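Quick one, tokens below. Sequence please?
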């Protein structure tokens, strides 16, 4: 295995925009949930008249769809991601809007399908506002305590944070906002990190995991983890995912 400094330096210089995780190939793995979100999305989009994908990242998921809705929009708040998404999606006629999802510049009842893969926060009342009566919200959310084995290695125990993103609470919040829940499924998926570069890149790509992450600040935590990885055993964590489908009730 290459030296600690080589791995950390390489990971610190690598591009982390968008939602392309191919940099981790051969260095980290993550199981996928059993329901096949992108496959289901590919089936739903062509049936929609007007759809929007929220928090689209770099647009990679939409760009991989064989067919899109008749009218397709997407939102992204982080400028580097939005620029990447615009490059990928505008040639396919997608309207890319730079905005947060708590206040979107769409008229009431604009869409018959709202989708999202790993939204930052599902703002249910705003989603309900832009959906037509009978319209569908279909998404894969990050679940509770996702990747906490890794996060707590750096931050210590986070007992109160483990209750965030609870699927039962999300379903209740959606119902209060005017939705009928048609499906909720959960999965716990194994993650493996094989070198310290994979850890550094991931924490840069997902800065909300360890908000103050910096290689120098967490030098000892990283070196301790690096020593364990050099024994040949991967660092194991678990991501959690929620598949949720909800239908907008009549106003």
């Amino acid at each position: 295995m290459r030296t600690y400094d080589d791995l950390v330096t390489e990971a610190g210089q690598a591009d982390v925009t968008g939602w392309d995780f191919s940099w981790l190939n051969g260095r980290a793995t993550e199981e996928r949930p059993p329901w096949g979100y992108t496959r289901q999305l590919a089936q739903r989009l062509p049936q929609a008249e007007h759809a929007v994908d929220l928090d689209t990242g770099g647009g990679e998921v939409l760009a991989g769809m064989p067919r899109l809705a008749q009218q397709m929009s997407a939102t992204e708040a982080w400028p580097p991601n939005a620029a990447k998404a615009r490059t990928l999606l505008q040639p396919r006629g997608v309207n890319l809007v730079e905005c947060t999802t708590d206040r979107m510049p769409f008229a009431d009842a604009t869409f018959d399908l709202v989708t999202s893969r790993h939204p930052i926060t599902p703002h249910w009342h705003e989603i309900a506002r832009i959906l037509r009566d009978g319209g569908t919200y279909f998404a894969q959310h990050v679940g509770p305590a996702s990747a906490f084995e890794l996060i707590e290695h750096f931050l210590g125990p986070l007992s109160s944070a483990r209750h965030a993103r609870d699927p039962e609470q999300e379903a209740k919040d959606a119902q209060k906002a005017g939705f009928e829940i048609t499906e909720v499924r959960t999965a716990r998926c194994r993650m493996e990190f094989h070198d310290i570069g994979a850890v550094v890149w991931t924490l840069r790509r997902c800065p909300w995991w360890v908000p103050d992450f910096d290689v120098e600040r967490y030098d000892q935590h990283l070196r301790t983890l690096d020593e364990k990885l050099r024994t040949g055993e991967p660092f194991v964590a678990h991501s959690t995912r929620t598949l949720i489908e909800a239908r907008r009730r009549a106003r």
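The domain at 4-248 is CATH 3.40.50.150 (Rossmann fold). The CA atoms of residues 138 and 245 lie 5 Å apart.
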